[in-house]
């Protein structure tokens, strides 16, 4: 009981000193809980949306996949079953639906009215009898081929009004229609753009034929279960179609979006985890310093009979209190964070309603659990050290004893770990197979990180001395005092710097990988891409016939190459084995646009009639030789016998492992309707007409907002921008860990100032000015920050370089160290050090000299 | 009997006045209203240059407060304090800090040294932070005098309490301040080490012409001084020249008794 009381009193008495630790716990827990609440809410929103749109039983064609959208393939039901379904037992009503996501809608200025965030544009039939998740709120339902209705969010965001004309580009072609109605969602629509038209228009314009449907929606009669109805339908229609109950179809839709949300959730939790790790250093430092400051007090308690265990426990209980307070605030903060995230997402186009804010009971449990466990673990070592304080400490003069020497054991273990990690990294860098290498890379990263943390205190001594000779000497005696202060407790400096090191190492590593990606892509474009222009869709829309024609119609082009992915092809090898692979069908000029070296044969021959190429590795693995005949079973067509006319090199980074054949060959075996749309078009300009050709292409494609044409310069820029965006996102998430680390620097300085009150008083008494005092603390802070930055950047560049060496196998061939970024981070760390010292320096300078001297 | 202004304003030593520091009608009060406590009650005092002055008095008499005010460590409620001809009671922190750095030396009872600096670094610290080069010959003489020649590279925690105080004395002397203030400089030392330190202080006054003001409650320590000021209830109640330990003790007993009676 007394133990608890002492802990409570200590906790309350030192709440100022605990504040930053509590904030660290709070931030980490808030990030974890915020992620959970946000993803749970998003899931709940989608669940509700899907549940409200799915009918009791849905019948759809077999083999429908997400790829159909990109490949511009139309799958439909002939419509004959509609009458048949009406007679199935238990059916109350049946409607035929038409839906297509291969739709782009453009306004008068040829700008897409679709979502900017990657949410789909859905063209669909409007059937007033059907159960709907929307209501018409203005205008009327669309009738006839020139009328459409759009959803209210889209109308608002894209400033569309009744009477506006919209151009709709679908697979069969494009058409114009007027907006006659606006429909509002009755559940939260996270961002899809909806375009309604009457069923006949939808059938002809979206599916390309009258009377066909995308799916049938069945309603069950009262008393008939969905499962029963499904059974009846299957019995009647057979297995040629896909039949799903409401539960099944919503689950399928949820799984699609859920897997994306899971990736996001685990990525964010990963970053939260890093912040938690960094927070541990802060907490360890706080408790170490509290214990050190309380040495005499603890000695007294030991002297009057407290057992080691009691002392130990009293410190741990303080940690527990800290953990509980920090975590509870963190859980609340997490909910706030989730709401903030939803607002941000809302302005970016993903609309989520706070009505559906989902806080599962597990969320606070997980949050508080993590916060408490982490805090108690972090306080364990300082607590043990407190227990070891001898009763004699009560009698010794005050003043904090210097921390026990870091010792050679620490050095040995740290060096061993680092050496082991470095060895793993070397192995990873020289690995032949990416899979083996990545394992060593992971091991190397973890070992070097732990190694650096362990020898951090020893490195602190070395690095601070070096930094001191370079930087601090300029500042004379104040610099020397700062250096000595940074060195006086290497363990503390080491831990504070290590916390910063973790975040910065990741920043450095990712920036190296990112800029290597850009450099590799640029090199590869220069080396092997002969095409002047690249036409692609950034939104996953198909390059429809109309778009392809527009490209062909551009002036000043020498040639245009179309490229298609033929998926799911079964290839029977000479030895009788069968493998399923995708083929790359292209025009013969593709070989000039993307120069793939061959090890045998001639690539041009592979584009001949009934010929193809295979990559080197495939040929080796399956013992395929040039001139062999492969039996190729096209998924959507007939079986062909193709001759291997060329074997391509595997030492490439674009189209690695591709098997080429002529589109004309595919056309012989696959019905025109089932041939996928182009995934990409490449073009070369006539000599000297590059500028005109680019302008002409742009003009031709202006009508098609779903695709973009880029020349090599723009393409490189695009790659750079995309990598840059991704890096910025990751840096943003790492910012949390870095903020916690900076709090750690503030914490260390603030507690040091408290600990050195008497010294500060003495210095002020003998004539150190306030300005000198502030400068001394700022310099100490800068040195600690630079120490962390130096370690982190060094470690990160090592990781990044190894990752690049490893990924060279996957095409990341060029190593580029982004020196501007690295130097910016280094200088930025010094600035951060200055900022971290602001408050502690101010407090030190303001300290009352006499009170300071009189402090025990 | 509340003034100790008894020395001529100008004396023989160079351009300086014979008074190193003086207080005029100095009041130091804490709190206000009913809780008001007066630590110094209209004190007038002159500190003679080149002399060793001891300030004595029972606990709570205000002797430490007087020293702190004289040294520019503490502010006064009213009245004026001069170091030489500079009125320090009007100075802002910046000027005051500079004054302490350049013209005053300190020796505290304990914790005089920065643990991160070696003995010699501690000794030259005030000059270092002022950006002044120490006078080599003088420094050697000071170090010689306090007998630390062999221990200059040691850190404070490698020195005994007496040695630490001697380093503090050396620091105070090294910059040749106009005046050195000691706040019970031997309070934490055993009698032998204390005698050593006091011996140095006395010698620095006698041989080096240093001015020293020391607060103490130890009659033996006070006996090293040229002059002893007695404080009680925030006033100077008596003074004694060329004291001996016995005389001081006798006088103290007298005050203690009077204090108890009143």
Written description of the protein model:
- Chain B: Pfam families: ABC_tran.
- Chain B: It comes from Streptomyces malaysiensis subsp. samsunensis.
- Chain B: InterPro entries: AAA+_ATPase, ABC_transporter-like_ATP-bd, ABC_transporter-like_CS, ABC_transpr_LolD-like, MacB-like_ATP-bd, P-loop_NTPase.
- The complex is a heterodimer of chains A (856) and B (262).
- By secondary structure, chain A is α+β, with helices and mostly antiparallel strands.
- Chain A has 4 domains: 1-54 and 265-401, no CATH class; 63-239, no CATH class; 457-529 and 712-856, no CATH class; 542-705, no CATH class.
- Helices cover 57% and strands 16% of the residues of chain A.
- Chain A has 27 helices and 22 strands.
- In chain A, strands 13, 14, 15, 16, 17, 18, 19, 20, 21 and 22 form a 10-stranded mixed beta sheet that branches.
- In chain A, helix 8 (246-293) runs parallel beside helix 11 and helix 22 crosses helix 24 (770-807).
- With 262 residues, chain B is an alpha/beta fold.
- Chain B has a single domain (50-77, 101-261), classed as P-loop containing nucleotide triphosphate hydrolases (Rossmann fold), CATH 3.40.50.300.
- Helices cover 35% and strands 25% of the residues of chain B.
- Chain B contains 8 helices and 11 strands.
- Chain B has helices at 63-70, 93-103, 119-130, 136-146, 161-174, 191-206, 219-222, 245-261; strands spanning 3-4, 19-30, 37-48, 52-56, 78-83, 86-87, 104-107, 179-183, 212-215, 227-232, 235-241.
- Chain B has a 6-stranded mixed beta sheet with strand order 7-8-9-4-10-11, sandwiched between helices. Chain B has a 5-stranded mixed beta sheet with strand order 1-3-2-5-6.
- In chain B, strand 5 and strand 6 form a beta hairpin.
- Chain B is globular.
- The model of chain B is unreliable at 8-15 (pLDDT under 50).
- The A-B interface holds A 397, 399, 402, 476-478, 480-481, 484-485, 487-488, 758-759, 762-770, 772, 849-850, 853 and B 68, 73-74, 93-94, 97-98, 100-102, 104-106, 108, 110-117, 121, 125-126, 128-131, 157, 171.
